[in-house]
Write a structure and sequence with these properties.
The chain has seven helices and five strands. By secondary structure, it is an alpha+beta fold. β2 (107-114) and β3 form a beta hairpin. α1 (11-28) crosses α3 and α2 packs antiparallel against α3 (57-88). The longest helix is centred in the N-terminal third of the chain and has 32 residues, at 57-88.
């Protein structure tokens, strides 16, 4: 299963996505609305106070409304993101779900290696080269990365291959930082080379794993 970058959403779709995310966050986080409202009112109060000190309370107060709204939106976005990650973190397929929403030209193939206990390796092709992203527990993710890396190396020659294990242990990348970690990798390939690389890797394809597009509930197994 390969995730490709979707078409650019419309303004209405983006607003709908934001509204849905905020609605879900408000239901799951009882402090969400009080904190967001508090940030807005607190920022506005500071701006009005500055306005009185400078002798322009109306002008700076109007400006303060925009600044307060931006501050509140920033806090709302962070808490919504934190809530979204907390809902899927530790579940099989979480890394794939996160990578599927990345901006840019990233070709993500789900579960190219796996075990019955949902230790998974996903293969990503992009400007950095080939990135093997594993999720699971113990030594299995590293073992699976090694298996896939040997297959990939035969087809990609000297093109860069990176590996990432998602988790909270030393040497691993936390799920919430996965997107930024991948985005910071060097751009080693031109767009044409990315297409060529993906075409080569189609020869080994992906695994025929009966798992959904998003994360699985904890405790699931491949049958």
């Amino acid at each position: 299963m390969t995730a490709k970058t979707p078409g650019k959403p419309t303004r209405r779709e983006r607003l709908g996505q934001i509204r849905d995310a905020l609605s879900v966050t408000a239901k799951g986080d009882p402090k969400f609305i009080p904190i967001v409202v508090g940030v807005f009112l607190g920022t506005l109060a500071v701006m009005i106070a500055i306005g009185f000190l400078l002798g322009h309370p109306v002008i700076i107060g109007i400006l303060g409304i925009s600044i307060a709204a931006l501050a509140a939106m920033s806090i709302a976005g962070r808490r919504a993101s934190k809530m979204a990650f907390s809902r899927i973190e530790g579940q099989p397929g979480a890394a794939f779900a996160v990578m599927g929403s990345m901006r840019g030209d990233w070709r993500v193939t789900q579960a190219v290696e796996f075990t019955r206990n949902y230790d998974l390796v996903h293969r990503v092709v992009g400007r950095p080269g080939v990135i093997l992203v594993a999720e699971g527990s113990g030594a299995k993710p590293r073992e699976l990365i090694g298996m896939q890396a040997r297959k990939v190396r035969r087809l990609v020659g000297d093109k860069p291959i990176y590996d990432v294990v998602v988790g909270e242990e030393e040497g691993q990348v936390p799920l919430r930082k996965l997107q930024s970690h991948l985005m910071k990798l060097p751009r080693n390939l031109k767009p044409k080379e990315v297409n060529e690389l993906e075409s080569r890797l189609k020869a080994i394809g992906g695994a025929n794993v009966p798992i959904p597009k998003g994360p699985m509930p904890r405790g699931g197994k491949i049958r």
